[in-house]
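Dear Dr. V.,

Thank you for agreeing to look over these. As mentioned in my earlier message, I'm a first-year student in the group and I'm still getting used to reading structure tokens, so any feedback on how I've presented them would be very welcome. I ran two proteins. I've put each sequence directly above its structure. The first is here:
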Amino acid sequence: MQSLIYKVFTRKYSLSLQADALVLLSTVIAQNELSTAEATKWLELLADTWTKREEGPLVEAGPLEELVAAVSAGTNTSVSTRGADPASDVFTVISAFDIPPLWYDPSSKTFTHPFSKAEILSSAEAKASLFRQRYDLLKQRVLRNENFTPVLFSDHDRRFRTLSTIDSLQGREGERFLLLGMLAQLEEGKLFLEDRAGSIELDVTSVGKRAHGLFTESCFVLVDGCVEDGVFRVDEIGLPPPETRDVTRNAFPNVNLFGGALSLRTNAQLREIEVATDNGLVILSDVWLDQPSTMRALRVLFDGFSHSEPPIAFIFVGDFSSRPFVAGSGDTTQYRDNMTALGQLIAGFPEIARTSHFVFVPGANDPWGSGALPKPRIAEYFSSKLESRVSHVTFATNPCRIRYCAHEIVVFREDLLKRIRRNCVLEPEEGTDVAKHLVRTIIDQGHLCPLPQRIRPVYWAYDHAMRVYPVPDVLVLADRFDAYSVNYEGCHCINPGSFSSGDFSFFMYYPVSRTSQYSKIPKS
């Protein structure tokens, strides 16, 4: 059986077993008289659970014995978290401030913790490293792309590209180069490309081929061209090639980049739960609770769902007021009363209030926050009465992440399209879908807000919370732009549009089929 144990733990899950751990597993298998098939299934459950617990690549006897005690030797055992709500490991909301600060280290080619604890008032080191970290993360992804990997002897017909750095261009005018760097305006009216080695002025007047996407300052791009008179003449420009989540997971199998506690259930068990409870997730944005028409529409919405199986969750995305919140004014009492009224409305539909999860993501008009991202959750002072009336409710940060069974969902409220379009340094191609441009830009950049700090500031030590890496299953980009749904690189991107200022539209997302449905409430 030792060869089987090595096959599962070492070859499949890249784990190293200490000698006493190997003896422990062999003993348990022998005592329970497991067949080869049963032992394989049990070992895979153990190895998968060990990986999810992030115990590290070295399997020691002590922690392994605790895990064996928690996981029955039977092959039909369901593993759940101890002392927790049975559904707590199925639907989890992750705050942006709880996501571990993992940064990519090019020298070791692994993720490390740059500081022990991220803080809003962070050190200057965090600011200096912010864009370097984005560059390192994108570069390792690009170099793993098939167009940039060296050719093997058996595949000699395939061509591949080589990335150059800006410092290697000196004295090599006329030669063609492919560069990866960040767009910046270091001088008024001039566009530059920056990488770790330096910067160079760009001439984009003769760009002949431009890939889809929106190009702004602080956006990372690939440029192809040559140097003439100290200026890089760009012939082609594009965004870094994306990478599917499966490729990323294979590259970093034991790293939890998404954050939050992982379920100890197997993927097969989680998919069984998805299939059994595929009632969909309801996604709404700009739910103005100070408008009577909004409350009437929400009553119609809840009433419609009360006659069938309640949805898995209602994801309410701000703004929750039609006008900006002003601290110290009458807005404080009014805002709290609006939240309380919503809680009373939900409580009027007992089955929904008892079984569905409710997630509230703040917008720019909601309290509090300094204007930088991530935005903290709505204060408990405003939400306490609503929370007392609903069984499963979470007031989240903006952005936030949701893990439902095997699904990873990112929710972000920002009028992104308007901001990015206004700050484009290159006009997008005419006659193309601007929503697809936006989705491609966010996924390819691996970042929710690829804009300069002066345009949309991000807390330096929490820039990792703005990542879109690995690519999630669902990306909700709540925007006042027209509603849309776009599939790109295995990610289903949704903009539910504005619920209150539009025609009371919303989206239903179904995890099993990975599809969404645009819906709206008729105006009475």
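The second protein is here, in the same arrangement:
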Amino acid sequence: MFTDQQHQYFNIWKNGRGLCTSCTPWVAGFKLAKSPTAREDGRHDCHLEVSEEAGSAIYIYSKQRTTDASKTALMSVAPKYVYTPLNHLKDGTVVNLYGIVKFFKPPYISKGTDFCSVVTLVDPSNEKLTCSLFSGNLDSLPKIYKVGDIVRFHRIKIKEYNGQMQGITSGGFASLTFDGTVGAPIVPRTSSKGYSFVHEEHKTVEDLRVWAASNLSISEPAIKLSGVQPTLFFDLTCQLVGKAKVDGSSFLLKVWDGTKCPYPTWKVPVKARDLEGEEVLLRRLRNLTVDILVYDNHVHLATSLKIGSFLRIYSIHTKQASADNDDASHIEFHLHGGTGYGRGIGVLPESNPDVKDLKVFLESVDLSNSQDMESMSSVELDDTFYSDEAFESDLKRYQQLPVTVLTDHLGLNNTELKTILNSTAPQQYRIRAKLGTYKPQKLYQAIKLHCSKCNSLQEVPHEDELALILQGSDIPAPNPELHNTSWYDSAMWITQDQKQRKIVIHFVRHEEILQEPENSLLMMEGGTLKEIWKLTKRFKCVIPVRSTEHGLDLLDISAPFLFQGNKRYYGCKQCSTPKPINSLSSMVAQQQQPSWEPTEIAQVLGIEPLQYVFVMKFTLVDGTGALDAYLLDYENFFKIPASQILTTDFLQQKMQMIMNALCPPGGKLGQLADVLKGEWEWKGSFNLLLYMQILRIHIMHGQNSEQRNSGVGNNSSSYLFNTFL
């Protein structure tokens, strides 16, 4: 990463401001790498990467105008930054800003190897900005501990999405975080070894603190263990005294805050030898600690926590439950998977004011009521933790707990898969099974295009393939005779590159008036994929077209017939009968205010639209057999529209977390699928209730298990799915 001063030097060098003609910039310790944003920002395919570890540095030398021309001097430039209010942000810019944290998600592992944090900021302009921050180094992300903290971001990139500005990390991103409490010391939190924070910025932080205290309701009362209630979601500041791995998708944290929970608490079944922590302290605190079970994406961080560290755990869920054959109820503490509502774990430094207060309180707690270890008998010691027999017994009960509840088919008993595999259709069954495996493992490959009319599936064209279609050599040149008709205006220009492409944009009018950009439909000839994407950021719809002898036609049925926002709409080659573009004039004439809905445009142009779908294979197992089931779903199963998965990183992460919950990698607990209900039908389909969401799974229904697993069966859908899996 650049230090702040290195970036100031770099910007002066890059922009050519403040340097005399005799100045010479020198760089050292840089690595030449491929730029991941070259296609978006139009810059060079390669860029320079720097890091403090590599000793990267930028030097600017200036020749002295003396008789000795060989003398040089280092030019010192004092960094001075301009900070942009949130209401002045513009798409595509890289800015510096201050903001007050209104919402945040603690850092978590993204779908790759990077850490991610989401922060929503506000400022006195009453605008808000949501930032998605990524870094391979956890320490380089902002050290935010609570709502109301104040952050300073340098070099954050602004992009517009769905009409709202968003911030993302760019090259050289750096941050400082300050306590937002009025009167608290102004001490920056950062892992950077070199940063600037001048005296004028103290006043900026103080002004933001005062404004937040008067205008925002961001302070939430602290809840201690003594104040918890059933069905509560709360943040807890505590100390970690023990931890243990439960299975591949859950992890146990034993914590205390010096107060006692007013309810009996659940003790997670773990063997004593698997529990990390100081045994003497664990026994002394056994009446004051609580067991928090964390799941899925939080396990990675929980595993790395050090015993004795101070934590702030966000959005813990307290749940009241009863043990089998026991009238007594108890409280369970869960940190569910995902990052919704800011769920996560933060490690607090000992310099944190809340930690200082907690340490003082913990030291004052009287532990004399706890039995001394030496006075405890061996029987009492054994009863404190789980024996192997008790562990296996409780573990078995734990594995049987369902996480959903059936609302119908309650009269059906569970049936083994072995029985189902040897049965004939139609029958009704209710099963309990594990999700053993699923395909494809790379979940973005599960997105296909489906025609509901002919039931065909096809791959979603890759961007490179789509770019070639849009710039095909057989595309005719624009015909000037087709410009400026009764229902659209036209504008043409020639690009300044070597190809000198002719680009034409046809602006559709309504009642002789051009609509506002956000409501407008454009038709484009000769445009590249990148140029089309730029237009969709400002205009509602873009249709790629080409000139023919008779008028404008759709460019190619292999290309999207419509671009809208970040979505691409495709048509089925077999079922579509494309009509001339002039057919759209009827929509303009008949509607008072054309909405330009994709379904209406497809109907007018004779296009049978393809739908984005999830296509996956699930292998269900229960110890008696294995059953391959195929998912064909638009959005009911994951509660995520398939059309948005390929263009939204956050939704891809959400989909991955759902699959990790259903099929944890290497896990034992949590692999049980929810109670499933199924109904065999003559068409070879199987209805499944999973995570309380109704979906339809087409399933191979051959003559025997070998045929089913090889894809040979009576149902044509078997061949359809095996082609893609």
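From my reading of the second output: Residues 325 and 397 are 12 Å apart (CA to CA). The longest strand covers residues 94-109. Does that match how you would interpret it?

Kind regards,
E.
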